[in-house]
Each structure stands twice: as structure tokens, then as C-alpha cells.
Amino acid sequence: MHTETTATEDKSSYRWIALAIGALVQAVVAGAAWTIMPVLFYEISQLAPLGLGLSLVELGAIWGMFPLAVAFFCIPMGMAADRYGVRLIVGIGVLVAAAGGALRGTSSGFAPLLASMFLFGAGYSTIGPNLPKMVGMWFGSKELGLASGIILGSYGLGAGLAITFGGSYLSPALGGWRNTLYVLGALSLVIGILWIVAIRDRKADAPQATKPTSAQPGLFDSIVAALKCPDVWLLVVVLFTSQGAFIGAIGYLPMYLVEQGLTQATANAYVSILLYVFVAGAIIVPAISDRLGTRKRVFLASFIINGLAVMATAFLTGPALGLAFAIWGFSSGAVILCYVVPLEHPSLGPSLAGAVNGLLMAATFTGGFVSPILGNVIAEAAGGSTAIVVWGGLYVFAALIFLRVKETHPKGARLDQL
Fold this sequence. Notes:
about 425 residues, mainly alpha
């Protein structure tokens, strides 16, 4: 039987185990099982019996169904974890995602595949907002950036491996796209069982300003606190613009690079550089923030560099292009700080972070739905390089917005008061 650990318990012997399991969930369910879809789309688009004979528009709808489901459910799932605990809500979510992921392989046409992708996204909606919350329960400010980077940056590792090996090696070895999705669904199921068996919740004190009178937060306490906090809305703008730009650019650049004369394999390899290096950036950049004692200054510098690197990918070739992708991926690690700030914020804290992270995830995936459409319109009207420059500019805009967010690292906050 799992009991909730008290805030006074020494957590050093367990926190890294929880972090490793959380990183495994992120890498497999979000990183590999979701991001593998684009490299399987060629098979899926073929006529039966190999594929389903889907059109490009239908494949786009299937790809967009995951973020749509996440955006729809992530706020209530964050609220639920604030009320009922991360272990239960994420455990259920991983099992739902495993079922939805495996059901994709049984699809006989467009509608069943669309429905299974929605179920898959609904399962992930419990994971995205609540893994950062779990980190806040087990880690203090000295390690919060590093731990958040590990658990969120693991997405890049799973995604990079899926793009590099999924279509070219894994699917042929397993006998096609259906078996590939079955295997990933089964792996997600095993990880879900591991989560339920091994993870335990840890009770954390809510900030005095928002502490409820009952022993546990009411279902709506966390979302009310989030909506009342101006810094949360600033973070919503930051993520809507910057992560919308990321999803838009990463979806368009492979095609753009092919149009510039690269082979499809080479274009995919450049995108993989971005994802792999993001793993390092997601760990190192927040750790630098921990060491320097400031979230705002590290974020500002990183995202300005980020935006310039994105713009550079529209004009560079050869090794310089690979370097631009690497700089983009590394500096993108600063996005982790958007999830660190609510954990340290005096009006929020870990006990209320589920709903906050739900809002932030909703902003991310809503931006990811809107930005590719607007960017492609710009590309058709003014050229692909213009669209990429606009996406890069959104990163710089996000950096300037983040300047208005309260500095939450204890050391940085003290310096700002001097």
C-alpha cells in the first residue's frame, strides 16, 4: 500500500528514482510513441494492405489530433492531480495512452486512427502538466532547474531516436507500422505499471497566500490561484508564441530544406540534431540557472540566441546549418524555466502546480496548432525564409515578455530587491 510521504521526510534516497521513472515516461510516451508518427506516415498513406490510403490532409488531421486532445484535457488533469495526487492521475493517464497508442495499429481507416490518436493525446494530457509538479514535490531550488530539465528534456531523446530509427530501421524490423505501434503501446503499458508500483506522492506545503483550510486542496483551488496570478498569464503568452514557433518551424523546415536542394535523409538528420542537442540544453541551461541564481536573465539570453539561430536556418548551408540547429536545440533548454517558475512562485508552489502546468501546456499546444497554419500562409505569400524569420522573431518576443515575470529563484529575488 502506498502512503503519502510527509514534507519533513528525508527525500534524498528516493527523489532520483522518481525522476528516472518520470523521464522514462516522457521519453517513451511523448518522445517516441508520439513523434514516431511522421516517419510512419509514408507507410500509412499507402493503399491497403500496406497502409490506409490516407491523403496529406487526413495525415495532417491525425498529427494535429494529439495536441488538440492535450490542449482540451490538460487543465482538468492538472487540477485532478492537485486534488488526488500525481501518482494516481499520471498512472491512469499512462495506461490510457498505452491503450490509445496500441489501438492506432488496429485502425482500418481514417476515422479509427483519428479516434485512437485522440485517446492517446487524452492519456498524455495527465502526464505533461504533472511531471513538473512531481519534480517540485521532491526537489528544492538548488536542483529544481536541473531536475526539471532532465524530466522534460528526455522528450528530445525519445523523439530524436524515433525520427532517426523509427521509419528506416524499427518498422522494417518489426514488420510494418502496425507492429511498431503495438510494440510502443506494450512498452508504454509496462512503464505505466512501473509508475503505479514505484511512484509515491509527497505532501508539500502550499504557499501561505493560497493555502486552503482543508488538508488537501479543493478541486478548483489550484485553477483559481493560477487564474489570479498575473505571472501565469505572462508565461501563457511566452509558451503560446515560442512553442508555437517551435512546432511550426520544426514541421516546416524539413520540407523547406528539401526545396533548397538537400535530400530528405539529410534534412531529417539536421532536425535530429536539434532534438538531440535539446536534451543537453534542457539539463544544462536550467542547471546554469540554478548555479547563477536567476531564472529571468538566463531565459532572456537563451531565447534571444534561440531566435537568432532559428532565423539563421533559413539562410545557412553545410556545417554552419548544422551548428545553427545545434545552437537552437541547446538554447531551447531555457523553456524548462517556464515550468520551474510556478514551483518557486510565492503565490503558487508545487501543491498548486498541476493546474498551472495545465494552462501552460494548453498554451503550448494551442500555439502549436495555430502557428503552423499562420506560418505556412506567410510562406506561401512571402516565401519560406520569411516564415522562418517570423518564427525566430517570436522567440525574441517571448524573451522580452519573460522579463516581466517575477524572479523566483531565492538568490535572484534578493538581488532584484537591492
